[in-house]
Amino acid sequence: MPDFWPHDFATWISTGAILLGGLWWVLKNTIVTQISLLREDLRDLKNEFKKSNEMASDHERRIGNLEAWKKSWKETWKHDDWEV
Q1: How is the chain split into domains, by residue range?
Q2: Is the pLDDT of residue 80 over 90?
Q3: What CA–CA distance (Å, rounded) separates 52 from 45?
C-alpha cells in the first residue's frame, strides 16, 4: 500500500481538477452567459422605459399647451353669436 500512495493521490487530484474544470465550463456556458444576456436585456428595457416616460411627459405638456391655446383662441376670436 505505501508504494501506491503518491500515485493514488495524484490520480485523485487530477481527476478532481478535470471534473471541477468541466463543471466550471458547463456553468460558465449555461448559467453565467444567460445571466449576462438577461442583464443586457434589462438594461435595454430600462432605457426604453425612460424614453417612453419622456415621450409621455412631453405629450402631457403638448396637450396642456393646446388646451391653453384653444381657450385663448376662443376668447379672442369669438365673433359669432351662436358659437358656444
Answers
A1: 21-69
A2: no
A3: 10
Question: How many residues are recorded in the chain?
Answer: 84
**Identity of the residue numbered 60:** E
pLDDT tens track for 19-62 = 999 999 999 999 999 999 999 999 999 999 999 888 888 888 88
Q: Is the pTM of this model over 0.85?
A: no
Report CA-CA distances (Å) from 46 to 1, 37, 50, 62, 66: 64, 14, 6, 24, 30
d(CA 40, CA 80): 60
**Helix extents (H) in the chain:** 5-27, 33-76
Question: Phi and psi of 82, rounded to 5°?
Answer: -90, 0
Over 60: is that where the pLDDT of 83 sits? no
